[in-house]
Amino acid sequence: MALGAALTTVQITGSYVDFEGTAIQGQIRFTVSSVIRNSTDDQMIAPSTVVVPLVNGAFSVVLPATNDPDTVPVPFVYAVEESFPGGRSYNISVPYTTVGSLDLADISPAPALSETFLAAIDQTSFDSLETLIAALDVNINQTTDKILASGKYWYIPATYSTYTALDTAFATYTALTANVYSLDGADVSSFTTLAQASQSAALASANTAVNLVNATIHPMLLIGG
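Structure (tokenized):
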């Protein structure tokens, strides 16, 4: 069954290529989300979607005008979906007074520019970056994968509970902070082991607490004389 003869229709066209001029593959979808009443032809147009494939990047389709005085509501719009990577979604109107055809390049919204920009780096900034990288490279022993650190950041084992013990082990506090030490994974392995043990103990305690709250006591514990 065809559209009513009283409806004014308009040809919609479009063409899509990439920056190299290669035709885009995909389809264009035109959707009307409300019922359109054509009382002149005693016809109701149900909400629907017209899918038009891109052939060599181009398409052509004939659609009812969106402000035809013979239809209700007036006006309505088409929701357009460009179904291909990077495609847009937007609404268009199709005036019934159109002479000839309408091309999407003329009636679709202007593409929005991205608001995310990359700042160009100048020579001075690049030179400063090279200097910082060179300074860092001096402090990295690429053979042993160790980073030299000031004694101010060296950990103090818990066994040195007094300043006297610390002074005996490291001579003086001044000597400790003046020296440079190599830090690697072995330096913190004992602390990692201790932390893991603490985690296991905490988990066991939590499980015990949950069992007590839920009164999940093993039946064997209830056997007694």
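The longest helix spans residues 189-214. Helices lie at 104-107, 123-138, 163-170, 173-178, 189-214.
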